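[agent] plan:
  1. take the single chain provided in the ticket
  2. run structure prediction with default settings
  3. attach structure tokens to the ticket
  4. add a short note for the reviewer (M.T.)
[agent] executing step 1
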Amino acid sequence: MHRSLMHRSLAAAAATGGAAALLLAAAGGAAAHVGVTPDKTSANSYALLTFAIPHGCGESGTTKVAITLPSELNDAQPTVNPNWTVEKVAEQLPEPQKLADGTSVTKRTSQIIYTAKAPLPHELRDALVLSVKLPDSAGTTLHFPTLQTCEVGQTDWSEIAKDGADPHSLKSPAPTITITEAANAAGHGEASASPASHSTEQAAAVTDSGAGARSWAGLAAGIGGLALGGAALLRSGARNKATAGAAGK
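[agent] step 2 finished; step 3 output follows
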């Protein structure tokens, strides 16, 4: 019986360690590349796109992040981040493009470039937020190729999965979002919102750049709970063994 209890205790400890390893691997994988999280994806709406910068190039700190806008977007409004300077790069259009309001544009913003005031250490993360007007094209996937430059080396997050391929299999995938149906057929609500209405949301998005830290804290708490559970099982086995020994005397 004692041997059976010991086996169960060891199995519980092994399960605890295995679960912790899986949780850490999942968290590490989720934060392994530059990604984008939109606050909404409704067609013809204004959205906040948060680009997560999770690590540098190897152990080299990040110095610059250049985000290329897809051709479906004509402009983006960068949110101020005190750790970075920011500039918008414009390009001349081959021919004037007519907008939904009837006006025409001859130039578009092709890139948003953030330059770090001091290199972002590889073990720290930051978040860069853009406000954009999403196109009225539900089902369209927008890709944002992003070049991450570090003190030593750079990583070009620009790979796009071919039709039918798994984007998770890519080594350096481009940040991507997919446009969904508009909020309602009348075109009100989200679709009629203006950039000004997002001022508080932008502040919230910048504040939420600490979400990763909270996630790691939750992960640590979960692992701690598993460890305590395994330790309690071991103590229970020891008490049963001591009780059985006393009864045998």
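[agent] step 4 note for reviewer: The first strand starts at residue 35 and ends at 38.
[agent] ticket updated
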